[in-house]
Design a protein that fits this description.
By secondary structure, the protein is α+β, with helices and mostly antiparallel strands. It is built from 3 helices and 4 strands, in the order H-H-E-E-H-E-E. Helix 2 runs antiparallel to helix 3.
Amino acid sequence: MLNKSNRGFLLLLVAIIGWFFIVRPQINVFTERSLESKVKQEELFSYEQRIEDITFIRDKGESIQSVLRAQYLAMPKTGQIPEVLVMIEALAASSGVTLGSATVGEANGSEVPVTVAFTGGLGTVTSFLNSLHNNIRTVIIKDQSMIADNNGTLTVTMQLGLVFQGEAQ
C-alpha cells in the first residue's frame, strides 16, 4: 500500500514539476506569440488600408490632376504677363473685335493690371465681353468706358485685374 502511495506522490511531484518547468513556460511563450500575432494583424490591416488609399488616389489621379490644372489656369501662382497678352489677343481675335492696345502693368499683390482698348460692333464687343467673362483665367473688371460713333462702331476701354495667387505671406 505504501508503494502505491509513494508512486502516486511521485507522479504528483512529477506533474507539479512538469507544470512549473515545462507547461507554464510554454504558456508564456504562446501568450507572447499571440500578442505578437495581434500586433502583426493590426500592422497588416494598416498596410492594407494604405494600399487601398494609394490605389484610390492612383485610380482617381487623372481626375484630381485635371481639377488641379483647371484651378491653376484659373488662378496661377505668378502673374504670367506674356501669357496674359497672348490670352487677350486670342480672345479679341476669336470674338472679332479690333484690338487697339493692350497694356499690361506691373503685377501688384495678387493682380496683374491690364488696360485694353478695342473697337467693334455691338455683337463682336458682346462676344469679347462674354469670352472675357467665361475665360478660365479669373478677371476682375475695374473700370470700363464705351463710346459709339455714328456708324454704330463701339470703342471700348477697360481696366482689368487678372488674378493670380500672389506671394505667400
